[in-house]
Here is the input.
Amino acid sequence: MKKNLEQYSKKEHGINKKDIDPDVMIIAETLIGSGYQAFLVGGCIRDILLKNKPKDFDIVTDASPTDICKLFSNARIIGRRFKIVHVYISERKYFEVTTFRSDIQKNNKKKFKKSHGMIKRDNIYGSISQDAFRRDFTINSLYLDLDSEILHDYVNGLNDIRSKKLKLIKKPSVSYQEDPVRMLRAVRFESKLNIKLTDDCKDAIIDMSKMINNVSPFRLFDEVLKIMHSGYGTIGYKKLRKLNLFKYLFPYTDKILNDNGIYEDFFIESLNNTDSRIKKGMHVNPSFVYAVFLWPYYRELEESNLKGNAQDAEIVFNRVIQSQSKYISIPEYFQPTIFSIWSLQSSFLNLSKRNVQYLTRLSKFRVAYDFFHIRSLINQDYRYYADKWYEIQKNVKSKKVEKRKKYYEKKRNK
Here is the structure.
């Protein structure tokens, strides 16, 4: 892509400093006062222009990571592939500050590593214009000068935002090969931002979808979660299927989906539920999404191998996790919750007093019940049990609230 720099004044771009976190300006003033440049770049600019609230603010500068750390005592360099500086405002709040990088393919081929055409290391510093052309989408390559408040646009990004167009900066075949995760980012942005991916970018995903398996399984865990926890997971899931990506992310599940449509309905209900919770500001458990997507594979193995005891259930579970880990690796931290969700499903068919007392005392009772409830929306045979358990969990919740209330009243009266 060849494009001359376009500069837009504050009046033309419409971004106001009140839209920017005040702590960002403190960092910028320190950089500018020391003779460096300071720009806001990426998603925060895109979101402000689309009238959305930015999730975070990324600062880019001509200062090196070492120079940045000299200016801020509360700064720390992280990362190997990309050296990023975290400047801490408090124990929990920090901002990413990065140095302009260049397109290393054009600079020096000996200074970076490739695997399957993917860039593995990328710490070659450059100018703002070089930095602009090495980013993924045009809408993510806009730079707001925090000194002059002028917006710098090298790739026609502002016009693409205004026309709701999602377009790669480089040729799709080159861009996706450099980083196949850009295919997942395309799905997430198109789903969440209500913008349209250009036909050439879309067609290239279908043609190159298999390349997603060249990405680290650990990285894919987070990238899939970003789509499903965007508040538009249902739309994202449908796009993953349509663009041929889902079958390479969850190959065992995909094969079962093609033979058994009932799981498709279950996925849609589950993701609708997750979307609703996120939009209401409610907590969502990362384990839940993976429990949903791997449930068909677990059920298939369970029906063919399970003899009815807990040990066999654990063997089946381990086989599912191990097989899936070649494609998406689920961290050990989340695995016990997934196992609890699956292994407790049959227990919801038992309404005995003893079983009710046992289940409601478990820490994973609620998430396992939510899973069972969604299953009951698809399978009428479970509806009676789901309704009973709804009343049970409601009573348990009210008792816990009352118990907590009495505890604090007693504490206050001491």
Remarks:
- The first helix runs from residue 10 to 13.
- The chain is about 55% helix and 10% strand.
- The CA atoms of residues 287 and 334 lie 5 Å apart.
- The mean pLDDT is 90.
